[in-house]
Amino acid sequence: MVYIGVTGWGDHDSLYINVSPRDKLKEYGAHFPIVEVDSTFYAIQPLKNAEKWVKETPNSFQFIVKAYQGITGHQRGEIPFENKYEMFEAFRLSLTPYLKAKKLAMVLLQFPPWFDCKKAHVDYIRFCKRELSGLPLALEFRNQSWFREPYRERTLDFMKQEGWIHSICDEPQAGEGSVPTILKPTNDEATLIRFHGRNVYGWNKPNGENWREVRYLYRYTTEELTEWLEKIKKLEKQTKNLFILFNNNSGGDAADNAKELIHLLNIQYEGLAPKQLGLF
C-alpha cells in the first residue's frame, strides 16, 4: 500500500478554508492518511499533545514521528537531560499515545550533514537502535559518504541486518551534505520516501535567519513527479507499505505536489476524515 502525505500540518494553506489553527489536523485528516510530526524534533512533546493529535485523526491514520534533535546530534549545545539515557527514555515515553492507538507508522532518525560514515557513528546508530528497541525506526542520512563506494552496499546491508527502514530521499545533489536517491528497501514491512525539493542554491545556502525557508522552496513539476511513478511501483513490490512525504513546504507547494502524486497514481483513500470542518 502507498500512503502519501506531507511534513507537519500547520503551514499548508491550500488545505484550509476558514479553519482555525486548533482544527487544522482534523481537516488535514480529510486530505491525507499520514503526516510527519516535526515538532518532536525541536522538543520532546508532552503526552497531552500526542493524545490530542491521536484523538483528532481517523482510526486508520498514521504518524511518522521525527526523532528529537538531541538524539540525532543536531543540537550541539547542552541537552535538558541529566544524561543520554534519560533523554531516550523521555522520548520513548512521549510515543505512548501513538502506540496505544496503533497509529505509529515509524520514528524517523534523520542525521545531520556532519554525521559521516565512520565506526563511531555506526556504533552510535546501533546504540540508538538498542535504546529504541521494539519501535519501527527509519534512518535518513545527510552525508554523502554513506553511499559512496565502497560503503554504499555495506551501508544498505547494515540497515537491513539491523532492521532499519530506509528513508529514500529526493533532494538536490549538492555535494557532501546531500545523498543520492538509492531505490533499495531495507525492511520488508515499510519504506519511506521524502521529497525535499531540488533547490540546489537553497541547499547550499549558509545558515542564516531564513535558510530553512530557502532550502525547501521548490515545486515539483508534473514531469518530475511522473518520473517517480515506475520507481514507486517497483518499490511497492519490494516492501509491504510505502510511505511518501513531501517536505518542500516553504512556498506552500508540498500539499499540492502530494495531491498531484496521489492523482497520478490513481489512489483513492478510504477512511479519511470528513472535509470542511471549519465552515460552521
TrEMBL record:
UniProt-listed InterPro entries: DUF72, UPF0759_sf
Gene3D superfamilies: Protein of unknown function UPF0759 (3.20.20.410)
Domain of life of the organism encoding this protein: Bacteria
PANTHER family, per the entry: UNCHARACTERIZED PROTEIN YECE (PTHR30348), UPF0759 PROTEIN YUNF (PTHR30348:SF13)
Protein name: DUF72 domain-containing protein
Protein's organism: Bacillus seohaeanensis
